[in-house]
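#lab-general

N.A. 3:47 PM
ok so I finally got the sequence cleaned up, no stray characters, all 517 residues accounted for. can someone with queue access submit it? mine expired

B.Y. 3:52 PM
send it over

N.A. 3:53 PM
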Amino acid sequence: MQKKISSALISVFYKDGLEPIVKELHRLGITIYSTGGTQQFIEDLDIPCVPVESLTSYPSILGGRVKTLHPAVFGGILGRRDVPQDISEMKEYQIPVIDLVIVDLYPFEETLAQATSSSFTGKPEESEKMIIEKIDIGGPSMIRAAAKNYKDLLVVAAKSDYASLVELLVNQEGETTLEQRRAFAAKAFEIVMHYDIAISNYFNPGAVSPLALSGTKQALRYGENPHQQGVFYGDLNKVFDKLHGKELSYNNLVDVDAAVQLISEFSEMAGQSQVFAIIKHTNVCGIASRPTLKEAWDAALAGDPESAFGGVLVCNGTVDKATAEAINEIFFEVLIANGYQADALAILQTKKNRILLTLKAAPGANAQSKTVLNGVLTQENDKGNYAEWKESGGRETTDAEKEDLSFANIVCKHLKSNAIALVKNKQLIGKGCGQTSRIDSLRQSVEKAKQFNFDLNGAVMASDAFFPFDDCVKLGHAAGIAAFIQPGGSIRDKDSIEYCVQHNLAMVITGLRHFKH
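B.Y. 4:20 PM
back already:
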């Protein structure tokens, strides 16, 4: 649903990058409302601007602490254009419709860093005053109000989005789509959340703030070890139906998360039939794709039957009786499946502590976070298998190798770095992970394959990062590896490539690294 911008409210601390927006708004005939320094900035460009105080009948008061906190402003932002009573009340109280809100926040974190640095020469009370006065009130309120009403207006809450706004105004002549308004609203809420957490951390130094976490608080038996307390924040019922077994532990949840991330890759890949995987300490220790789930289970288990003991199992199909009977022969902690046939469920429920989960939907989060030092690291999820498929060896890959290489690259993506995965006929037959050198991971993977009597002749190798030297392809070739897949990017890529060319080996460069620390 498209909306035409007819009016805009601009109130920003930083003016850099604002000029092109203001000029474009003026070109489009959009009424601009503003306050204080922003108003002066706009007027200095010889562009007309309506002062907010003409709407509120109040000047900026209390040293600038109160400027926009007024129904005439928030009514114009929050008024719903499809609710007749809202429109009627806005007309009755002469509240203007506001279609675009451009607001940033006082620089709290920058001021905090300045006021607490060794170079600050003021008194402690001056430092405190500086910090407190940079806790924005009106800004977050306007941003939240505008984001809440994204169906009717656009909110821009950071100068990093100014260029996108200018492009939108130029290309769409002041019209916005619902999808665009929702996307900007999502960014706005993230900005306000980050701001509030920074303030909370200032008042609670050293505390681990749960503000960024959503959902219910669930106490766990203990954390990673019995002497550590553990808590889960979230709603598992949105992800699973729990059919049987004891409560999930901290370590269970960590492994279950790894299992779900892995299996969701194969649910999305074309050409994959039934996939079964075994997870141990977040690493894949067995995985295979076969026409039936029972065959996939047998092949996955054969990959490393020792490590499978006490693992977390996951598959992308419905567990039948034959598969359940086979699985029932080993000890495992958790089984995750799309569903269970009644007779299969009866077999698996014979062990009272065994946890059986039906996966309803993979979690939709687009980012990952973890605490480090006195803060939190956040990053986008590692999406995709490869960015390109560049045949760089001494020959083209065969169709069968292509399937195995694609399969191996996904498996390698879900192993801890440095990671190597050896695959043959869509079965993991050897893996090395968590080593301090890539060649050590390769040695580990070759030894694993030999331990369980796999023939490596004709197998393929995936590496989560580039080969810094040609030693990996040499060792792999000596073991029987026929094709390699790796992201490339080493200054010595040519060494590995030339070896493959000289020995008629296939090598694919993907352009996409998959580190997992």
